[in-house]
UniProtKB/TrEMBL annotation:
Protein name: Beta-phosphoglucomutase
Alphabetical list of SUPFAM superfamilies matching this protein: HAD-like (SSF56784)
Organism listed in the record: Lentzea xinjiangensis
Major enzyme class: isomerase
Cofactor(s) listed: Mg(2+)
InterPro entries referenced in this protein's UniProt entry, alphabetically: B-phosphoglucomutase_hydrolase, Beta-PGM-like, HAD-like_sf, HAD-SF_hydro_IA, HAD_sf, PGP-like_dom2
Catalytic activity: beta-D-glucose 1-phosphate = beta-D-glucose 6-phosphate
Source lineage: Bacteria, Bacillati, Actinomycetota, Actinomycetes, Pseudonocardiales
Length: 225
């Protein structure tokens, strides 16, 4: 079965929230509740423009800067940690649901013998992968904890994807990136990755394409043939 990628691709790197699982919706809910508790209205566009795909504290800084606010670093961390506690609570209450099309694609990739990595800004990736029964598909994981410990720049910088490719023992030009966030698509494009797949979960197909996606799909299994 074809995975819908160029022949030169020897490894696959997937974002987690919004690509493999529906947890992006839960993160958006947690961000909205966190910022609105501060008296700052938070829209879908705010999520896409300022926090989607970025490390947690970077998201806090970006959103508040858009409101003309520059809080001290301890306040940035307090807000980010509050959001993280809230999203964990929401996950406990609502559970984790992998996208069916993504599971089918992961299964096909595994059957094809393709190495699979997950690259995410989330510090909760292991919990999400375990709850979604996805761990068996993952050969390498670069998450928020690795990004912090290794002093990597978060998306839209390509550092985390480059580290994912390194862990799968392949060069960026021979790896494919799968992303639903504009920041992640930019990271894949700017990092010189061999193929960038945009996953449109938020009616932003044109923006994903403009940001560097080679192809845009609504579900990953659209790539299978």
């Amino acid at each position: 079965m074809s995975l819908g990628i160029p022949e030169k691709i020897t490894a696959l790197l997937f974002d987690l929230d919004g690509v493999l699982t529906s947890t992006a919706v839960l993160h958006r809910q947690a961000w909205r509740q966190t910022f609105e508790a501060m008296g700052q209205p938070f829209s879908e566009q705010d999520y896409l423009a300022h926090v989607d795909g970025k490390p947690r504290y970077d998201g806090v800084r970006s959103f508040l800067a858009s409101r003309g606010l520059t809080p001290p670093e301890d306040e940035v961390r307090r807000i980010g940690d509050q959001k993280n506690e809230l999203v964990n609570q929401i996950i406990d209450e609502q559970g984790i649901t992998p996208y069916d099309g993504s599971v089918r694609y992961l299964r096909a990739a595994r059957e094809a013998g393709m190495p699979i990595g997950v690259v995410t800004s989330s510090a909760n990736a292991m919990r999400v992968l375990r709850a979604g029964n996805l761990l068996d598909y993952v050969d390498a994981l670069v998450d928020g904890n690795v990004i912090t410990a290794s002093n990597l720049r978060g998306k839209p910088a390509p550092d985390s994807f480059v580290e994912g490719a390194r862990r799968l023992k392949t060069a960026p030009e021979n790896a494919a990136v799968y992303e639903d966030a504009l920041a992640g698509v930019k990271a894949g494009h700017d990092g010189g990755f061999g193929f960038v797949v945009g996953v449109d979960r938020g009616h932003q197909a044109e923006a994903l394409k403009a940001g560097g996606a080679d192809v845009v799909v609504n579900e990953l299994d659209e790539l299978l043939s």
